[in-house]
Amino acid sequence: MKPYLKSFFLLFICAGMVVTLDQTTKILIKNSYQLYESKRLWEPFFRITFIYNEHAAFGIRIGNHLFFVIVNILASFFVLYYYFFLKHQTRSEPVALALILGGAIGNLIDRLAYHKVVDFIDVGINENWRWPVFNMADSSVTIGVGLMILSMILVKGSPRAQTHSNPSPPADSAQSGG
């Protein structure tokens, strides 16, 4: 198999697994819970709470439905462009991009189907310190972005990156005195 086809299949298999996990968990929640129903699973840290979120990940209030559809589509195209046309510095970058792509597609499906996103993962401490409710797609994007940032930090600090960013002058120009 040609390398670019192998790369293409790996990206879409990984992203497809994220979309499948995201959509399956959302269907299970919608079929098992009433809207706003919350069940404590691991007190005081973890609950399942079924809500619809019309806003950005983690309830960030910017934009509207069309804005989020466009952002999801643009993010997906950017990930595909980055994946196929830019050289990867680390092995974790393709995985990170697949996680971001799968998460973006998972939430795009919800936005196109319901004009909002199904959220259900509710973490925090007691009632006073709760993170906004989120879903598997949000988690996937967050982990993917975190991996990309970590990858960029590691590459920047690696000896290979320092060699490429500060090349030594050619030997003959150094010997001739400039």
Q: How would you summarize what this structure contains?
A:
Helices cover 61% and strands 13% of the residues. The N and C termini lie far apart (50 Å).
Approximate helicity band: 55-70%
What integer is the average pLDDT?
Answer: 84
Largest sheet: 4 strands, antiparallel
Number of helices: 6
What is the CA-based Rg, rounded? Answer: 21 Å
Instruction: Record the strand order, biggest sheet.
Output: 1-2-3-4
What gap, in angstroms, lies between the N and C termini? 50 Å
Q: Helices and strands, in N-to-C order?
A: HEEHHEEHHH
Q: Quickly give the structural class.
A: alpha+beta
Approximate strand percentage = 5-15%
What's the shape? globular
Q: How many domains make up the 3D coordinates?
A: 1
Instruction: Give unreliable regions as ranges.
Output: none
**How many DSSP E strands?**
4
Give structural notes:
It contains 6 helices and 4 strands, in the order αββααββααα. The longest helix is centred in the N-terminal third of the chain and has 30 residues, at 3-32. The chain is 61% helix and 13% strand. The chain has one domain (3-130, 139-161). Strands 1-2-3-4 form a 4-stranded antiparallel β-sheet. With 178 residues, the chain is α+β, with helices and mostly antiparallel strands. It is globular. α1 packs across α3 (92-114), α2 (65-85) packs antiparallel against α3 (92-114) and α3 (92-114) packs antiparallel against α4. A hairpin with a 3-residue loop joins β3 and β4.
List keywords for this structure.
4-stranded antiparallel sheet; alpha+beta; 178 residues; 4 strands
